[in-house]
Design goal:
2 copies of one chain form a homodimer.
Chain A: H1 7-41, H2 48-54, H3 59-65, H4 69-95, H5 99-108, H6 113-130, H7 134-157, H8 162-182, H9 188-204
Helix pairs in contact in A: 1-4, 1-6, 4-7, 5-7, 6-7, 7-8
């Protein structure tokens, strides 16, 4: 809050914040319901009437939060980007200053149980949608690019040239995407041994 | 054809073959139309009425080829497995006896223009479907397993132990899956340099 704000202004803001929070919560429920239907049935089933009946609310209440279906779909993408990309990179950068430890953390993302499985389901549904929708394609491409930039930046900190860093970043990121999708293949000891293998392949020897 | 077959038998077979071919062609058209709708809209939109209208045929003609929607979905999966897996591994094994050349060929699959882009679209749609359907999950898992077995066998021919071969096979296959899905990232020279990078990483040094 700006230090020059007077008390009445602060009180007004608190009331405004609470109302905004209530609205955001309900808006969030629409977004979550839309995401679930997207994951389980595909984007064509994400329709206002269907969501309203799943949420046991009237169709009309949708329009209090969203202008139209398109705005809801944008919100689904925006919510995914915030959760999946911005929060993860912020958390990792905060948790470890060491680039190598941050890279190991990225490689471990697909192994984080239920949260990872849910994230993988959502991401796969978004990628499938992005294959035939420009708006989804743009959101997914931006998220991919910002993750690869982040990973590439870590390799540069380890002494790679920019070109080397981008090769390694793509390879490491691709492995994370593949492990998220193909994770059911192999026993848990196989999964853990191939994770170590890639870790050693990309991080083990010093970059030249 | 069995050498003991008499001429009349042969003639009968030819007539039967032609009829079977006509039937197969039409069955194929249903399968192709179903695959297109799956890719562009998701599995819930793959419905007999919709496909019939897209193919400009009656709904009834569907039931000449398939007992029900479920049989069509099975045929979609079967057709994909035949094309995507069996034909590819057979072609590669025939084209090169050298395991290293076969592995390079596998790595080059996502770079084969339109055919590769179409294959990637179909496969992504199947993976999205497989996240919430046991039959699709089984088909995708079997295809993944047989490809990894094939790639692992090549690494074993190069002297890897079975465990090493499986690590490398997963990593190489994961890279192909990721490159198919993330192929839009980077310029074509970046794509080609990361392909060489992975090739060198996994094939460059002799396995111990």
């Amino acid at each position: 809050m700006h230090p020059a704000a007077t008390r009445p202004q602060r009180a007004q803001r608190r009331v405004g914040d609470a109302a905004a929070r209530r609205e955001t919560l309900t808006r969030e429920r629409w977004i979550e319901a839309a995401t679930e239907v997207l994951v389980d049935h595909g984007i064509d089933d994400v329709r206002v009437d269907r969501l309203a009946s799943e949420l046991s609310v009237t169709r009309g209440s949708f329009y209090w939060h969203f202008r139209d279906r398109d705005e809801l779909l944008r919100a689904v993408l925006q919510s995914w980007r915030e959760r999946a990309t911005e929060q993860i990179t912020a958390r990792l950068q905060g948790a470890h200053r060491d680039p190598r430890a941050q890279l190991r953390d990225v490689l471990s993302l697909p192994f984080r149980g239920r949260a990872a499985a849910r994230a993988a389901r959502i991401e796969l549904a978004l990628r499938a949608w992005a294959r035939h929708d420009a708006m989804a394609r743009e959101a997914v491409a931006e998220a991919d690019a910002s993750r690869i930039d982040y990973i590439g930046g870590l390799f540069e900190l380890l002494g790679c040239t920019r070109a080397q860093a981008r090769q390694r970043a793509f390879t490491l990121y691709g492995h994370v995407v593949a492990e998220s999708q193909l994770g059911a293949i192999g026993s848990s000891s196989e999964r853990s041994s191939r994770r170590k293998f890639v870790e050693q392949l990309l991080l083990g020897r010093p970059a030249r």
